[in-house]
């Protein structure tokens, strides 16, 4: 098959070229032993955009070998932090240059509105790369006093080696969060993009070569999860795996890592994030942030604020404002200028979300908004709000990964905290209050890796992000992410002590 595809974007009256091969050693190549393809689908039309090569387990071996060779020869400890910084900055510049085209591909493949893909996802990716480019020449250890007369010790933060990144649903900024600190520390990469959305990663790989990275530093191998994902998780020559996706898959990866070579693992998994609205809050703003929490990316966000609990005294007033905010969100094709949200990413996800909506109805929750299917083609799920919820309902307990919101009520601060923490997850949480003491008490009590006060779902590249409980292990972003891609080596240096022997 051809290793590129010409893809038409009728709404823009243009054609884009997308590479469709495996990106190994800075070249797009076919599979060494398989004819299997991954079909990239436009979720807004249900039509196939193009098909890309699906890597086999042998292709995974080739990609890992390329990454290992680069780590040992042209990257890793063989290049200075200044050079790593220069190349990462160059990659950021190229992404900025091609931001519109990358956003167009994102919109085609995952349904996200073009303006959001360009200004938020790709804009954040550029910033993330530049942030870690600044760290590349600042990876430092410690000098430790042992005995000033005879010896001392020091530490080095060495790059961990060959790192694998993959996810079940992945955007360009999710890739940047992992790629940027890994490159900054000197690691090499094998990236398995989501089999649902592989196109942006392949286009990005072209820019890696153009930026001047040595062959093998970053390799991109689209593959089916049970094939490529499983092979990478259990590979004996991989030093670290970072995964974004479901808790169920995260467990499998952790098990495979343990059974193979005990490779380092970081997991950014599911969430059932709570959003607390207290009576002192600015209700109009709280409603706006709650709407963002469930509508952004059509609810396909690990930190989606899918449970909102409101203090009884302001419950009815808040609901009115919340419904008005959510109704104002336009869910349409990604190239529609008015669109603030698109379809969910796949037929499988569409069926999953609608299964939860029907479950909510059957278990007795009240549909306040939405809950009705569209007749048109596309994987559309309009924002749906449930009230009259109980803690044992599936829509309250389980991650839906779609624009489905459960709204409950509480009387006291203690009850609010108990409701918020009544989950196996611990990724994000939000609270709205104008009582400063309450903000401190509640943010301290919430069991989540990230807590937002009087806002929701906004992240910064210099602030760490990650989960507690079954929401994952490890941290992304900020200086904390550097620890995920380095190993600390202690060096003991004796310059004066003489050993008397025998003992």
Automatic annotation (TrEMBL):
InterPro entries membership: Ald_DH/histidinol_DH, Ald_DH_C, Ald_DH_CS_GLU, Ald_DH_N, Aldehyde_DH_dom
One of the record's GO molecular function terms: aldehyde dehydrogenase [NAD(P)+] activity
Pfam families: Aldedh (PF00171)
Residues annotated as catalytic: 268
Keywords: Oxidoreductase
Domain named Aldehyde dehydrogenase: residues: 34-491
Record-linked CDD domains: ALDH_F1-2_Ald2-like (cd07091)
Family stated for the protein in its record: Belongs to the aldehyde dehydrogenase family.
Record-given protein name: Aldehyde dehydrogenase domain-containing protein
Organism (species): Panaeolus cyanescens
């Amino acid at each position: 098959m051809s290793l590129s595809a010409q893809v038409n974007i009728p709404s823009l009256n243009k054609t884009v070229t997308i590479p469709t091969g495996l990106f190994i050693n800075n070249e797009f190549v076919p599979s060494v032993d398989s004819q299997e393809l991954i079909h990239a689908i436009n979720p807004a039309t249900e039509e196939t955009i193009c098909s890309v090569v699906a890597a086999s387990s042998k292709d995974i071996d080739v990609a890992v070998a390329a990454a290992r060779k680069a780590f040992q020869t042209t990257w890793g400890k063989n290049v200075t932090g200044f050079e790593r910084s220069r190349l990462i900055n160059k990659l950021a510049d190229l992404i900025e240059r091609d931001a519109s085209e990358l956003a167009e591909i994102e919109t085609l493949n995952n349904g996200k509105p073009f303006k959001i893909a360009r200004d938020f996802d790709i804009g954040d990716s550029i910033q993330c790369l530049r942030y870690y480019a600044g760290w590349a020449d600042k990876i430092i250890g410690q000098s430790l006093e042992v005995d000033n007369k005879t010896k001392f010790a020091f530490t080095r933060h060495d790059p961990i080696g060959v790192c694998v990144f993959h996810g079940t649903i992945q955007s360009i900024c999710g890739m940047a969060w992992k790629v940027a600190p890994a490159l900054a520390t000197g690691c090499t990469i094998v990236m398995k993009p989501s089999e649902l959305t592989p196109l942006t990663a392949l286009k990005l790989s072209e820019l890696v070569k153009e930026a001047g990275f040595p062959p093998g530093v970053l390799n991109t191998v689209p593959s089916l999860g049970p094939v490529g994902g499983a092979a990478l998780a259990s590979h004996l020559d991989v030093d670290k795996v970072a995964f974004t996706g479901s808790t169920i898959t995260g467990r499998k990866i952790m098990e495979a890592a343990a059974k193979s070579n005990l490779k380092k693992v970081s997991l950014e998994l599911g969430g059932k994030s709570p959003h607390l609205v207290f009576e002192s809050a600015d209700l109009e703003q709280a409603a706006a942030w709650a709407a963002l929490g469930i509508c952004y990316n059509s609810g396909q966000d690990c930190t989606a604020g899918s449970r909102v609990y409101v203090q009884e005294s302001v419950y009815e007033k808040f609901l009115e404002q919340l419904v008005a905010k959510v109704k104002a969100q336009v869910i349409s094709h990604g190239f529609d200028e008015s669109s603030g949200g698109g379809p969910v990413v796949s037929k499988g996800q569409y069926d999953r979300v609608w299964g939860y909506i029907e479950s909510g109805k059957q278990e007795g929750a009240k549909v306040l908004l939405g809950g009705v299917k569209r007749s048109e083609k596309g994987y559309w799920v309009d924002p749906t709000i449930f009230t009259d919820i109980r803690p044992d309902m599936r829509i309250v307990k389980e991650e839906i990964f779609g624009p489905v919101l459960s709204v409950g009520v509480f009387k006291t601060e203690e009850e609010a905290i108990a409701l918020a923490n009544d989950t196996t997850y611990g990724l994000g949480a939000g609270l709205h209050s104008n009582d400063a003491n309450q903000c401190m008490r509640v943010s301290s009590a919430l069991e989540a890796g990230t807590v937002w006060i009087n806002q929701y779902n906004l992240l910064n590249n210099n602030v760490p992000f990650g989960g507690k409980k079954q929401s994952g292990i490890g941290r992304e972003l900020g200086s904390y992410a550097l620890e995920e891609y380095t190993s600390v080596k202690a060096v003991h240096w004796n310059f004066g002590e003489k050993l008397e022997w025998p003992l």
